[in-house]
UniProtKB/TrEMBL annotation:
PROSITE patterns: PROKAR_LIPOPROTEIN. InterPro entries: GM2-AP_sf. Residues 1-16 form the signal peptide. Keywords: Signal. This is MD-2-related lipid-recognition domain-containing protein. Gene3D superfamilies: Ganglioside GM2 activator.
Amino acid sequence: MKVLLVFLMLAAGAFASCDKDPEGTNEKLYVASCKPGDPLVVNSISITNDDGSTDYPVNVDATLNLLLNVTNTAKQAYPDLTIDAGIDRYTDIFGICSWIGIPTFGLTSGLNACDFGDTNICPLKVGITVVKDVIDLSQFKAIINILSASEPYRLTLTFKSGGQEISCYTVEARIVKG
Ligand SMILES: *[C@@H]1O[C@H](CO)[C@@H](O)[C@H](O)[C@H]1NC(C)=O
């Protein structure tokens, strides 16, 4: 039975190939909550070039101009904020599109999410906070080096305060390099 299944997958792979456009990422960034109901809500994320135009596909070799708009819907401010990030690539496995994790070398857990360049958003107040800053990805060079511009990527971002999850989002995007 197992052998037959593998054969069928191989046969399917020979004829089909997966359509690599999950959630319309050929056109634009896709952002979705993975835990609706969590207290920290992301209202919008945008990434632009220096001239203000939309940076898409996202150039991972350049600094990112990030505009982030969040709402803390809890009753109190969060004194601290960290992000754990997982990265998946969208790839073709015998004609079936699948998200497959890539190694992050421990570089993407417990990231300080209070400091965005010149802006410190902690304690994160109740209500809306807008962050506008330039993100330097060079600290993630070891990961960026293994990414290929031919596939869409998905970041799973888990925000924590005091070790407790307060938000989870997935961000899907195509990238370019150089
Ligand atoms: C942030 O998002 C909220 C909710 O969508 C919106 O009302 C507000 O105008 C936004 N603020 C900025 C500065 O973009």
